[in-house]
Amino acid sequence: MSIKNVRKEVMKTLEKKVDIFTKDYLIQPEIIWQPSDFLPNPQSTSFMNEVEEIRELSKDLGNDFWISLVGDMITEEALPTYESWLMDLDGIDQHGENGDNGWAKWIRMWTAEENRHGDVLNKYIYLSGRVNMKEVEITTQHLIADGFDIGTSRDPYKNFVYTSFQELATYVSHNNVAKIARKAGMKNLGKMCKIIAGDEMRHHKAYTEFIRQIFAIDPSEMMLAYFDMMKLKITMPAMHLRESFETKGGLFEKFSEIAQRAGVYTSFDYVDIIKKLNSSWSIDTITGLTDEAEKARTYLMRLPDRMERIAERIVVPDSNHQFKWMNPLT
Fold it and tell me: DSSP secondary-structure letter at 236?
């Protein structure tokens, strides 16, 4: 049986547990938080006063913070790209005789939860008055239209490695933004970003569980898929960020420098995520590996130390790029 067909069979086996995964890791719309829980109520007589308070507090945080927050928001808003990519994986079928299979239903429900993140951040940033929303909207439209290639093709093993990594990366980013906001006295924004981070951690645990179960069924191929993804280095979802009239991918490096300087997401966070994935999947104790998979494991075990040495040598430049997203303080 070909590697592709083996993966499909493994996905069919795990599909029998999708209802359990859904119950354990996703939350019904009537129970989970909604954006309106964190935003001024437009039906309230205190609405304008609450908006004014947001605008006043927003002045106390510098451009690096707002650029980082806007980048996080735009990344969340590009959700149509991520859903379409996942729906195309081997083993995920939305065109079966009985409609969506279990995996397709999982992707839709995961998408529905993720959709709230960009929604609430977009509205809060709009109310802050600190951001040129038209330029932000242009960047978002470009990012969705440009799409991206994460180097996984239709391989569910590689894609679940990617989502395991990225859900943890977004947890780190939102959690760090929450800390900065709370320190600046923006308690509601801090709480909002903290609870978004909580969602990301819950989703991270789901995707790492998928990988853990694949390791139990197909350890060598799962190890090789993990190796392939980490050797390529994880592609960030916002890699093609660009401003109006820019060519594809002209902004991501500048945004990354800002995020590092603000302490929102750094090279050391990348290293720490690899350590956590290695630990979550206990790759040091997995048995029954082929010789090739054993070599892959050795590489993966050594990778965090090697990446940490590289991270220690990185000097974050004092970037002075003037983002079109930002409005000057008035």
Answer: P
- Is 121 part of any domain? yes
CA–CA dist 290, 292 (Å, integer) = 5
Give the pLDDT mean for 103-131. 97
Beta bridge partner(s), residue 99: 96
- d(C-alpha 255, C-alpha 71), whole Å: 7
Q: What is the tens place of the pLDDT at every residue in 254-296?
A: 999 999 999 999 999 999 999 999 999 999 999 999 999 999 9
Q: What is the pLDDT of residue 330?
A: 44
User: What is the predicted pLDDT for the residue at 295?
Assistant: 98
Instruction: Identify the three-state secondary structure at position 131.
Output: strand
CB atoms within 10 A of CB 294: 13
Which domain, by its residues, includes 196? 3-313
CA distance 44 to 56: 20
User: What are the beta bridge partners of residue 273?
Assistant: none
Tell me 35's DSSP state. Answer: G
Q: Give the Cα separation of 130 and 125 in Å (integer).
A: 7
CATH number at residue 24: 1.10.620.20
Rg for the chain, CA atoms, rounded: 21
Q: Name the DSSP letter for residue 184.
A: T
What does the alpha-carbon distance between residue 101 and residue 117 come to, in Å, rounded to a whole number? 26
Please count the structural domains in the chain.
1
218-236 tens-digit pLDDT: 999 999 999 999 998 898 8
Residues annotated catalytic, as ranges:
33, 76, 114, 117, 167, 170, 199-200, 203
Please report which confidence band the pLDDT of residue 96 belongs to, taking 50, 70 and 90 as the band edges: confident
